[in-house]
Write a structure and sequence with these properties.
Distance between the termini: 41 Å
Oligomer: single chain
Order of helices and strands: EHEEEEHHEHEHHEHEEHHEHEHEHEEHHH
Number of domains: 2
Shape: globular
Helix content: 40-55%
Length: about 400
């Protein structure tokens, strides 16, 4: 399988940039022949993966801030689209990412090359709406340019990308449902997973017997979308807060931190800021809490499992978390149930250990290597469908002039 992997950001940097880097490595280990077009490189993939950056050469690169995120992605997309005509017959499928794929998808369809589009979050319109509704309820305003703040420009581009791609790659059932709810069909959606680096995230072999106080951990951007306010309320309503510790590893949106200040000042709550030792924090914690309003996958869930830390998550998070099997799951916004779950593990350490052991047993199924095998299987199915003539033909709207980059229209 010859794969063109187009990524409109810095491959190997943090967050989704790490996901992309791990996918490339996993695909190569699974046996794919991978050609990568990243905007630039932060961390190179294995030496047997060919890389052709679009917006950098050597140590020189175009800064994202110079163009803005949208124009940066559009320029990357334009360059990739222009390169495709030279790759006909040399690639079998193109893997694209949001806000940097529209022209690539159009040109690929014209050339008859199958495409997939990564969906690292739920449907964009749904994500905007659910976060804005909660911000309004809390009285918290998102700053312009915030990733969860409504943007008509981003929404317009991404919804067109959803329509153009032959298949949307959905890392959880929650993401799948968010597209089914707005009219997409199952044959336009494919399930895959994100993984965990089991060499980095692993349990403490010298783990001490559980102490009296429970240790709960949150890891990620401390934003309304992640539901940190639900976690704080549930923690402080539970007797676990009397002699336990709630560690919050991540940076807060200032307005959000101000709103939560009374709860954050509780002596059992430790605000750690951005941390680079997340794996160590997970090994020391008993439970990881992730009460998100919406998620794509919830990568910290697999990392917590592999570290011997039990996930307490909302049902917007990955379905790898199975209630009362390897995790405890609550409905989005159900603080009462989350409080009860924290209290349950505070009082029943035998159950805590049972869930922890079950999570560790599943690690082999959720590594990045396993994720690469799954993703390659999805590619094969998409390519097979294209050969059977089941992929959609380009419409008149999809035959655009590719001679100039996209610009933002306001």
């Amino acid at each position: 399988m010859r794969v063109l992997y187009s990524f409109p950001l810095k491959l190997g940097a943090g967050r989704i940039c790490t996901i992309a880097w791990e996918q490339v490595n996993g695909l190569k280990l699974a046996g794919a022949d991978v050609l990568v077009f990243p905007a630039s490189l932060h961390r190179p993939p294995p030496p047997n993966v060919e890389v052709r950056p679009t917006l950098s050469r050597g140590k020189l690169r175009i800064p994202t801030k110079l163009l803005g995120r949208q124009r940066f992605g559009a320029l990357h997309d334009w360059i990739v689209a222009r390169r495709l005509k030279h790759l006909v017959g040399k690639i079998d499928i193109i893997h694209t990412w949001p806000s940097g794929a529209m022209r690539t998808l159009i040109e690929a369809k014209r050339l008859g090359i199958p495409t997939v589009l990564e969906r690292c979050n739920a449907n964009t319109r749904y994500s905007y709406e659910v976060v804005q509704k909660e911000c309004d309820r809390l009285g918290v305003s998102l700053p312009p340019g915030h990733e969860s703040a409504f943007s008509e420009d981003i929404l317009r581009v991404e919804e067109e990308e959803f329509r153009l791609a032959d298949c949307l790659l959905c890392p959880s059932d929650f993401v799948v449902q968010s597209y089914l709810d707005v009219g997409f069909t199952q044959d336009h959606l494919a399930r895959h997973i994100y993984g965990v680096d089991e060499k980095l995230f692993h349990p403490d072999q010298q783990r001490e017997a559980p102490k009296r106080g429970l240790t709960m951990l949150f890891v990620g951007v401390c934003a309304v979308r992640k539901g940190v306010h639900f976690a704080l309320e549930a923690w402080l309503n539970s007797p676990a807060s009397r002699d336990g510790t709630f560690m919050i590893a991540g940076e807060f949106l200032p307005a959000y931190a101000e709103k939560l200040a009374p709860m954050l000042s509780h002596p059992s709550v430790k605000v750690l800021g951005h941390r680079r030792d997340v794996q160590e924090l997970m090994r020391k914690a008993d439970i990881l809490v992730l009460p998100s309003l919406e998620e794509g996958f919830g990568l910290v869930c697999t990392e917590a499992m592999a570290s011997g830390c039990v996930p307490l998550v909302s049902d917007a998070c990955t379905d790898i978390c199975k209630h009362m099997e390897n995790a405890l799951v609550h409905h989005v916004g159900d603080v009462k149930t989350l409080t009860q779950q924290i209290t349950l593990l505070h009082e029943d350490r035998a159950l805590l250990e049972t869930l922890r052991a079950a999570g560790l047993r599943r690690v082999g199924e959720i590594t990045w290597t396993a994720a690469g095998v799954k993703l390659l299987d999805v590619y094969r199915q998409v390519v097979a469908n294209s050969k059977h003539g089941t992929l959609r033909a380009p419409s008149e709207m999809e035959t655009l002039d590719l001679s100039v980059p996209l610009t933002n229209k306001r």
